[in-house]
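Hi,

I'm pasting everything inline rather than attaching a file, because the server keeps stripping attachments. The sequence lines come first, and each chain or strand is labelled.
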Amino acid sequence: MIFWQANGTIFTYGQTGSGKSYTMMGLYIYDPETKGIIPRVSNLIFTKLQESTCEIEYSLKCSIIEIYKESLRDLLSDSGVRLKIKEDPKKGAFVQGLEEVYVVCEEELMNIIALVESKRTVASTKLNEVSSRSHQLFVLEVNQKLPDDTEKRGIVNFIDLAGSEKVKESGVTGNKLEEAKNINLSLSCLSNVINALSSKADFIPYRDSKLTRLLQESLGGNYKTTLIVNCNPDPRNVEVTINTLKFAQRVKNIKNNVKLNIKKSPAAYSQIINELRHKIQSLK
Ligand SMILES: Nc1ncnc2c1ncn2[C@@H]1O[C@H](COP(=O)(O)OP(=O)(O)OP(=O)(O)O)[C@@H](O)[C@H]1O
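And the predicted assembly:
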């Protein structure tokens, strides 16, 4: 549970229909047997917070973004406004004006997830009848204040990438062809970023797509990142599967530097200062 006090990202990568959404969200989010990672982690967070023996003040907020054909959509807002990515010197790239909803219990969070699931842009292709044609970023942020005034913050990103099928294989036309091209484009930008990071290149092309800009911290920064690779066992997909595994191998070479997001209480800082003063005195 790194995200109690640090940042983490879990993302699923693989071809269409290989089970990325199944892994992330599951079959039914309310079913203990078939629910995916997001409902399980949500349950774990609230269970742990309730189990805690000391008085912890906490808040939990979530936001959900969809990247569809290189434009960002806030899935928690009905405004339909096109969101923009901005840079902040401290927190890096962020989505301006994104709705963040505070939730107080697991049930509330599950209801939000259920609502959003029904809103997702879904279209059918020859490869997967109910195929999600967009990337989805689900962000949970937990802030805690302990009885001794220590503050901890953890952010966890769940990223369900769209399928990476080749345009000619999916047999799509018109708007769906446009979708497939955009998905291929952002995934190839992701691949370029991974290549640059794993070969320790001087320049990392994060700014080439919305997806890589938003993943910048998760890929090369202060996040503990886990990639889940989904493969289709059908022998006809062997070439795509090999490419997917090669991608995963390159991702493994990337080393991130994760720092704990802990702000000690003023009393704890005074104690550290006193100890250091004593040390200086004894050295003198
Ligand atoms: N382990 C599994 N057990 C049972 N059913 C599964 C499993 N994995 C995937 N499925 C089923 O296979 C189908 C395709 O899975 P899913 O939609 O998760 O693929 P995907 O990789 O997310 O596709 P896309 O790229 O289009 O989003 C779904 O009907 C899903 O319920």
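The longest strand covers residues 57-68.

If the labels don't parse on your end, tell me and I'll reformat.
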